[in-house]
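S1.2 Input.
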Amino acid sequence: HSIFFKSMRRLCGSAHTTESMSSVEAPVTAPEADATTAAASTTERKPSPQDSFTVQVKSEFVLNERPSCLVQEQPSSDNGGDNGTSKDDRKPNRGQNKKRPRDSKIAHADKACLAVVRGEQCPFEKSDKGCRYNHDLKEMLANRPVDISKGEGGADWLKGQCPFWKKNGYCQFGIMCRLGEDHINMGTGQNLCRTIDESGNEIIGLPKPVVQSAEASSSSEAAEKPKPGTVLKHQMDIKNVLSKETTNLLRKNKYPFVCKRHFEIKKGSKDNKDQAAPPVVTSTTPALPAKERKLIDFRDKVYIAPLTTVGNLPFRRIMKHYGADITCGEMALCEQLLKGQPSEWALLKRHPSEDCFGVQIAAGHADQFTRLAEVLANEESIEVDFLDMNLGCPLDLVCNKGAGACLMLREKKLRASLEGMLKVLNCPVTVKMRTGWNDKEPIAHHLQRNIQKWNIDGVGAFMLHGRSRLQRYSRSANWDYITEVGCSQSSEFINIPLIGNGDIFSYSDYEEKILKNVEKCGEDGGVNNLIPCAMLGRGALIKPWLPTEIKERRDWDISATERLDMLKDFTKFGLEQWGSDQQGVNRTRRFLLEWLSFLHRYVPVGMLEVVPQQMNQRPPNDLCGRSDLETIMLSKNCADWIKLSEMLLGKVPDDFQFEPKHKANSYK
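S1.3 Output.
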């Protein structure tokens, strides 16, 4: 980690020069007066009602002023966005920051034509409209910024780390790659390719285009069997990539669906209006040829719940590294998937390391669920082990369309959705729900029994979040009610496993809230379908190493350098996922910063007065870690997260701004 020495000193402004210890792990020293004052104030202060929601930290780590290695906050008249209003008059921070700063779009003229990058002739060059991308490689080379691994404030550790060049011997971004000095001819701007010849020797030269010359393309042999040096495609190992043919059919509304839309079903005659109409999908969707449906065994597993925005593919790769057994993609909206929206289908992508993987879908109508099931079943490139129905999303945007938590109140549509999907899919369907619409009238136990009575083959598990829709993520999860639901299924029908979810933040929480309740649920000898499965949500965002703690039954005092290595892995995975051009770097940085907005809530075990930290506890202000790096990681200030991202991805533009997507009452 010596490569970070200069960067850390620049960022932190620290005067530590101790040569015998790693620079990023150099101890932080506070002024003696400040430390004395902090200790005195800690002992003399009277306890307040907020103490139960504050992490109990050893007094030597709590200062009365902001540590000097952090970005110093500027006094503001609007008090962080209050606009001068009093604290009582402010609206609670909930939902999303919809007006948060965004990266400016990159002009087409500033992007190189990918055909020219591959060494091909652009097919649009001679058209009437022409190609909107740049064909002049020398001009782009003259204006090309230095790699993000070089220059003042560059991320030195990324030197020679273009993920595509290292893995495939070819980078499709060519001159646009921000780590491209290893594979760009700096005299002509041409992209290079590393290949292996027939003798096994490595050759670096110009790439051979995917589409050969007219003579070569006319030969079927040349088309079927590419020669050594053929350009490799981006993300070849990523699974669940929808084919272009299917995408075009969905976008043009020409996909051959069997299930009709609910408004396409002809209404019965006036005489039959009073009769109950059968579910739409059961009468229009034929079952596919019978195949063995393999149910998922969630027992004694660590399952990473679907997490919007932050639960992306690079994050899930990190979770697999720390011992997660089952992963699930981010919530995807049926409506957008059925339109062929690429950004929505990207949420279903799967990495080869995700050996047990599910996708979570939200919709408000049974025909939408069933139509999507048809696409998933017919598309050979899509591989999922289970499909999770979202009955828990509390967002108004989702609930107003009858989806998410609102679907819990619409049992007819829910039944039709389950029956339609399970007639088409060959994988199990799980149901993720909340306790109810509000905490005073929980309905999950009734809904669970009703689904059980429907006797639909293929329902793999219930997943119950111990909060209501109106609670969102406030207050503690109701594990007493989860236990009650675990004992409420009827013995007359097939039992369906129940997985509890909420506030698992340590092995102690797993033992107390899950293992003990599983035992408690079976004490009277009755039905017990609550199973020991660690379903992790925000706990995994704040402590990604939580699966390791649960499996090894310990509280891990992970060091700051180990956490930095984790962030470096995420950065590499992000560049591999979103690209190494400027747009890919911007996306990687944004997703990294979104994750840091959760990671900073973790307080290292060695700093705690009371172990372990609880989910609803927040760190006190002005914490000083055991090193400069640890102090930066504890900061609640977005400016410090940006500085941390500069260590990993190079310097940001002077006008760069960031606000987390998800609001929280406890944070600015």
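S1.4 Remarks. The mean pLDDT is 83.
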